[in-house]
Amino acid sequence: MSLTENLGRTALLKVARTSEFGFFLTDGEEDVLLHKNEAKQSYEEGDELEVFLYTDSQGRIAAADKIPAIQVERYEWVPVTDVNPGLGVFLDIGIQKELLLGEEDLPAHKGVWPKQGDLVYATIRVNRNNRLYARLATDKVFEEIAVKAGNEDFNKNIQGHIYRTAKVGSWIYTADGFKGFIHESQRGREPRLGERVEGRIIDVKADGTVNVSLLKRKHDVMDQDAETVLAYLVSRNGAMPYWDKSLPDEITERFQMSKAAFKRALGKLIKEDMIYQEEGWTYLKKDEDRQSK
User: Fold this and answer.
1) Are 286 and 248 in contact (CB under 8 A)?
2) pTM of the predicted structure, to 2 decimals
Protein backbone atom coordinates (compact mmCIF):
# COMPACT_ATOMS: atom_id res chain seq x y z
CA MET A 1 0.00 0.00 0.00
CA SER A 2 1.43 3.40 -1.02
CA LEU A 3 1.85 6.32 1.38
CA THR A 4 -1.10 8.07 -0.28
CA GLU A 5 -3.30 5.02 0.31
CA ASN A 6 -2.21 5.06 3.96
CA LEU A 7 -3.34 8.65 4.59
CA GLY A 8 -5.30 8.86 7.82
CA ARG A 9 -3.74 5.59 8.97
CA THR A 10 -0.40 4.41 10.33
CA ALA A 11 2.60 3.06 8.45
CA LEU A 12 5.87 1.42 9.49
CA LEU A 13 8.69 3.50 7.94
CA LYS A 14 12.46 3.77 8.21
CA VAL A 15 14.51 6.91 8.77
CA ALA A 16 16.31 7.57 5.47
CA ARG A 17 18.11 10.73 6.57
CA THR A 18 17.94 13.51 9.14
CA SER A 19 17.92 17.28 8.79
CA GLU A 20 17.80 20.32 11.05
CA PHE A 21 14.00 20.52 10.74
CA GLY A 22 13.11 16.84 11.03
CA PHE A 23 13.50 13.32 9.72
CA PHE A 24 12.87 11.97 6.26
CA LEU A 25 11.18 8.59 6.39
CA THR A 26 10.84 6.07 3.59
CA ASP A 27 8.93 2.94 2.69
CA GLY A 28 11.62 2.08 0.15
CA GLU A 29 9.85 3.91 -2.68
CA GLU A 30 8.55 7.22 -1.30
CA ASP A 31 9.90 9.66 1.27
CA VAL A 32 7.87 11.66 3.78
CA LEU A 33 8.88 14.28 6.37
CA LEU A 34 8.47 13.80 10.09
CA HIS A 35 8.87 17.40 11.22
CA LYS A 36 10.59 17.89 14.57
CA ASN A 37 7.41 19.57 15.84
CA GLU A 38 5.58 16.27 15.28
CA ALA A 39 8.31 14.07 16.78
CA LYS A 40 8.22 12.91 20.38
CA GLN A 41 11.93 12.12 20.32
CA SER A 42 15.04 12.19 18.15
CA TYR A 43 15.80 9.44 15.63
CA GLU A 44 18.84 8.24 13.74
CA GLU A 45 19.26 6.99 10.22
CA GLY A 46 18.05 3.39 9.94
CA ASP A 47 15.57 3.61 12.84
CA GLU A 48 12.20 2.02 12.10
CA LEU A 49 9.09 3.56 13.55
CA GLU A 50 5.31 3.62 13.27
CA VAL A 51 3.90 6.98 12.20
CA PHE A 52 0.55 8.52 11.38
CA LEU A 53 0.24 9.95 7.86
CA TYR A 54 -1.66 13.13 7.04
CA THR A 55 -1.48 16.05 4.61
CA ASP A 56 -0.03 19.38 5.71
CA SER A 57 -1.41 22.85 4.90
CA GLN A 58 0.22 22.70 1.46
CA GLY A 59 -1.25 19.31 0.61
CA ARG A 60 1.98 17.36 1.09
CA ILE A 61 2.06 14.01 2.85
CA ALA A 62 3.55 14.40 6.32
CA ALA A 63 4.12 12.12 9.30
CA ALA A 64 3.65 12.28 13.07
CA ASP A 65 4.94 9.76 15.58
CA LYS A 66 2.05 10.60 17.91
CA ILE A 67 -0.61 8.07 16.91
CA PRO A 68 -4.16 9.49 17.15
CA ALA A 69 -6.93 7.29 18.48
CA ILE A 70 -9.05 8.51 15.58
CA GLN A 71 -8.06 7.17 12.17
CA VAL A 72 -9.73 6.10 8.94
CA GLU A 73 -12.45 3.58 9.94
CA ARG A 74 -11.52 4.00 13.60
CA TYR A 75 -13.80 6.11 15.79
CA GLU A 76 -13.06 7.95 19.01
CA TRP A 77 -14.34 10.84 21.12
CA VAL A 78 -12.31 13.95 20.25
CA PRO A 79 -12.56 17.49 21.68
CA VAL A 80 -13.61 20.57 19.76
CA THR A 81 -10.93 23.26 19.83
CA ASP A 82 -12.40 26.03 17.69
CA VAL A 83 -15.54 27.01 15.78
CA ASN A 84 -15.58 28.79 12.42
CA PRO A 85 -19.18 29.55 11.34
CA GLY A 86 -18.15 29.63 7.67
CA LEU A 87 -16.23 26.35 7.72
CA GLY A 88 -17.22 24.12 10.62
CA VAL A 89 -15.47 23.08 13.83
CA PHE A 90 -11.89 22.00 14.42
CA LEU A 91 -10.96 18.91 16.41
CA ASP A 92 -7.87 18.03 18.42
CA ILE A 93 -6.77 14.53 17.36
CA GLY A 94 -3.44 14.62 19.17
CA ILE A 95 -1.14 15.98 16.46
CA GLN A 96 -0.15 19.56 15.59
CA LYS A 97 -2.63 19.77 12.71
CA GLU A 98 -6.26 20.02 13.77
CA LEU A 99 -8.96 18.15 11.86
CA LEU A 100 -11.91 19.97 10.32
CA LEU A 101 -15.46 18.71 10.74
CA GLY A 102 -17.07 20.59 7.86
CA GLU A 103 -20.21 22.70 7.93
CA GLU A 104 -21.99 20.20 5.67
CA ASP A 105 -21.62 17.52 8.36
CA LEU A 106 -22.99 19.73 11.15
CA PRO A 107 -26.58 20.64 12.07
CA ALA A 108 -28.24 23.24 9.84
CA HIS A 109 -29.04 25.26 12.97
CA LYS A 110 -25.73 26.80 14.07
CA GLY A 111 -27.11 27.36 17.57
CA VAL A 112 -26.56 23.66 18.34
CA TRP A 113 -23.09 23.39 16.82
CA PRO A 114 -20.47 22.10 19.27
CA LYS A 115 -18.51 24.60 21.33
CA GLN A 116 -14.90 24.46 22.47
CA GLY A 117 -14.47 21.56 24.88
CA ASP A 118 -17.44 19.53 23.62
CA LEU A 119 -16.70 15.97 22.48
CA VAL A 120 -17.78 14.37 19.20
CA TYR A 121 -17.47 10.72 18.18
CA ALA A 122 -15.83 10.73 14.79
CA THR A 123 -13.53 9.06 12.30
CA ILE A 124 -11.29 10.35 9.49
CA ARG A 125 -12.30 10.55 5.85
CA VAL A 126 -9.94 11.33 2.97
CA ASN A 127 -11.38 13.30 0.06
CA ARG A 128 -10.45 13.09 -3.62
CA ASN A 129 -7.71 15.69 -3.12
CA ASN A 130 -6.16 13.61 -0.33
CA ARG A 131 -7.23 16.10 2.33
CA LEU A 132 -8.21 14.73 5.74
CA TYR A 133 -11.54 15.64 7.32
CA ALA A 134 -13.61 14.38 10.22
CA ARG A 135 -16.79 12.38 9.80
CA LEU A 136 -19.35 11.89 12.57
CA ALA A 137 -20.43 8.43 13.63
CA THR A 138 -23.85 7.37 12.39
CA ASP A 139 -26.63 5.65 14.34
CA LYS A 140 -25.44 2.34 12.93
CA VAL A 141 -21.97 2.89 14.42
CA PHE A 142 -23.47 3.57 17.84
CA GLU A 143 -25.69 0.50 17.54
CA GLU A 144 -22.57 -1.60 17.04
CA ILE A 145 -20.78 -0.30 20.13
CA ALA A 146 -23.75 0.21 22.48
CA VAL A 147 -24.59 -2.13 25.34
CA LYS A 148 -28.18 -3.02 26.13
CA ALA A 149 -29.86 -1.49 29.14
CA GLY A 150 -31.94 -3.69 31.44
CA ASN A 151 -35.03 -3.13 33.57
CA GLU A 152 -32.75 -2.48 36.55
CA ASP A 153 -31.52 0.68 34.77
CA PHE A 154 -34.96 2.34 34.82
CA ASN A 155 -34.92 5.69 36.65
CA LYS A 156 -31.12 5.61 36.84
CA ASN A 157 -29.20 8.88 36.70
CA ILE A 158 -26.96 9.04 33.65
CA GLN A 159 -24.56 11.36 31.90
CA GLY A 160 -23.34 11.29 28.34
CA HIS A 161 -22.73 13.23 25.15
CA ILE A 162 -25.15 14.25 22.43
CA TYR A 163 -24.22 12.65 19.11
CA ARG A 164 -27.15 13.79 17.00
CA THR A 165 -29.66 16.58 17.42
CA ALA A 166 -32.92 17.60 15.78
CA LYS A 167 -36.05 19.60 16.52
CA VAL A 168 -37.97 16.44 17.50
CA GLY A 169 -35.30 15.36 19.97
CA SER A 170 -31.67 14.54 20.69
CA TRP A 171 -29.72 11.29 20.62
CA ILE A 172 -27.30 10.49 23.43
CA TYR A 173 -24.58 7.94 24.11
CA THR A 174 -24.15 7.50 27.85
CA ALA A 175 -21.06 6.81 29.93
CA ASP A 176 -22.54 3.36 30.60
CA GLY A 177 -22.60 2.65 26.87
CA PHE A 178 -26.37 3.02 26.41
CA LYS A 179 -27.80 4.47 23.22
CA GLY A 180 -30.65 6.80 24.09
CA PHE A 181 -33.18 9.30 22.81
CA ILE A 182 -34.33 12.54 24.44
CA HIS A 183 -37.72 13.70 23.17
CA GLU A 184 -38.11 17.45 22.74
CA SER A 185 -40.62 17.45 25.63
CA GLN A 186 -37.93 16.04 27.94
CA ARG A 187 -35.38 18.82 27.53
CA GLY A 188 -35.59 22.41 28.70
CA ARG A 189 -33.62 23.52 25.66
CA GLU A 190 -32.08 21.79 22.66
CA PRO A 191 -28.59 20.65 23.69
CA ARG A 192 -25.59 21.11 21.43
CA LEU A 193 -24.02 18.36 19.37
CA GLY A 194 -21.17 17.01 21.51
CA GLU A 195 -22.46 18.59 24.71
CA ARG A 196 -22.17 16.62 27.94
CA VAL A 197 -25.57 16.39 29.62
CA GLU A 198 -26.99 14.74 32.72
CA GLY A 199 -30.41 13.20 33.04
CA ARG A 200 -32.28 10.04 34.01
CA ILE A 201 -33.63 6.99 32.22
CA ILE A 202 -37.42 7.18 31.94
CA ASP A 203 -37.92 4.10 29.76
CA VAL A 204 -35.96 0.99 28.81
CA LYS A 205 -37.08 -0.29 25.42
CA ALA A 206 -37.22 -3.89 24.23
CA ASP A 207 -34.11 -3.46 22.07
CA GLY A 208 -32.05 -2.25 25.04
CA THR A 209 -32.02 1.41 24.06
CA VAL A 210 -33.35 4.00 26.50
CA ASN A 211 -35.45 7.11 26.61
CA VAL A 212 -33.87 9.86 28.68
CA SER A 213 -35.19 12.99 30.36
CA LEU A 214 -33.01 16.02 31.04
CA LEU A 215 -35.72 17.64 33.15
CA LYS A 216 -35.29 17.84 36.89
CA ARG A 217 -37.06 15.33 39.06
CA LYS A 218 -40.33 16.58 40.51
CA HIS A 219 -38.96 17.07 44.03
CA ASP A 220 -35.99 19.04 42.64
CA VAL A 221 -38.34 21.32 40.71
CA MET A 222 -40.50 21.76 43.80
CA ASP A 223 -37.45 22.70 45.86
CA GLN A 224 -36.50 25.31 43.26
CA ASP A 225 -40.06 26.70 43.12
CA ALA A 226 -40.18 26.88 46.92
CA GLU A 227 -36.90 28.81 46.93
CA THR A 228 -38.35 31.24 44.36
CA VAL A 229 -41.42 31.90 46.52
CA LEU A 230 -39.31 32.20 49.67
CA ALA A 231 -36.94 34.69 48.02
CA TYR A 232 -39.89 36.82 46.91
CA LEU A 233 -41.30 36.80 50.43
CA VAL A 234 -37.97 37.90 51.88
CA SER A 235 -37.72 40.71 49.31
CA ARG A 236 -41.13 41.99 50.54
CA ASN A 237 -40.21 41.86 54.23
CA GLY A 238 -42.07 38.60 54.78
CA ALA A 239 -45.51 39.32 53.28
CA MET A 240 -46.99 38.92 49.78
CA PRO A 241 -50.53 39.35 48.38
CA TYR A 242 -50.58 35.84 46.89
CA TRP A 243 -51.88 32.60 48.34
CA ASP A 244 -53.16 29.21 47.18
CA LYS A 245 -56.42 30.76 45.90
CA SER A 246 -54.75 33.46 43.77
CA LEU A 247 -55.63 33.51 40.08
CA PRO A 248 -53.42 31.39 37.78
CA ASP A 249 -52.58 34.36 35.53
CA GLU A 250 -51.40 36.40 38.52
CA ILE A 251 -49.15 33.55 39.65
CA THR A 252 -47.69 32.97 36.20
CA GLU A 253 -47.01 36.68 35.71
CA ARG A 254 -45.27 37.08 39.06
CA PHE A 255 -43.48 33.74 39.52
CA GLN A 256 -43.26 32.24 36.01
CA MET A 257 -44.77 28.98 37.26
CA SER A 258 -48.15 27.27 37.02
CA LYS A 259 -50.71 27.52 39.79
CA ALA A 260 -50.23 23.81 40.52
CA ALA A 261 -46.48 24.30 40.94
CA PHE A 262 -47.11 27.38 43.10
CA LYS A 263 -49.46 25.44 45.37
CA ARG A 264 -46.94 22.61 45.70
CA ALA A 265 -44.27 25.17 46.67
CA LEU A 266 -46.57 26.74 49.26
CA GLY A 267 -47.45 23.30 50.61
CA LYS A 268 -43.78 22.44 51.03
CA LEU A 269 -43.08 25.70 52.87
CA ILE A 270 -46.14 25.27 55.11
CA LYS A 271 -45.11 21.70 55.92
CA GLU A 272 -41.65 22.97 56.84
CA ASP A 273 -43.31 25.57 59.10
CA MET A 274 -41.79 28.45 57.13
CA ILE A 275 -44.99 30.34 56.14
CA TYR A 276 -48.68 30.76 56.91
CA GLN A 277 -51.64 32.23 54.98
CA GLU A 278 -54.37 34.68 56.01
CA GLU A 279 -57.09 36.42 53.97
CA GLY A 280 -55.37 36.32 50.60
CA TRP A 281 -51.87 36.96 51.88
CA THR A 282 -48.91 34.69 52.63
CA TYR A 283 -46.57 35.52 55.47
CA LEU A 284 -43.09 34.37 56.40
CA LYS A 285 -42.97 33.07 59.95
CA LYS A 286 -40.55 34.76 62.30
CA ASP A 287 -37.86 32.62 63.92
CA GLU A 288 -39.33 33.12 67.39
CA ASP A 289 -42.77 31.96 66.17
CA ARG A 290 -41.28 28.80 64.76
CA GLN A 291 -39.18 28.08 67.86
CA SER A 292 -42.14 28.53 70.23
CA LYS A 293 -43.92 25.49 68.74
Assistant:
1) no
2) 0.75
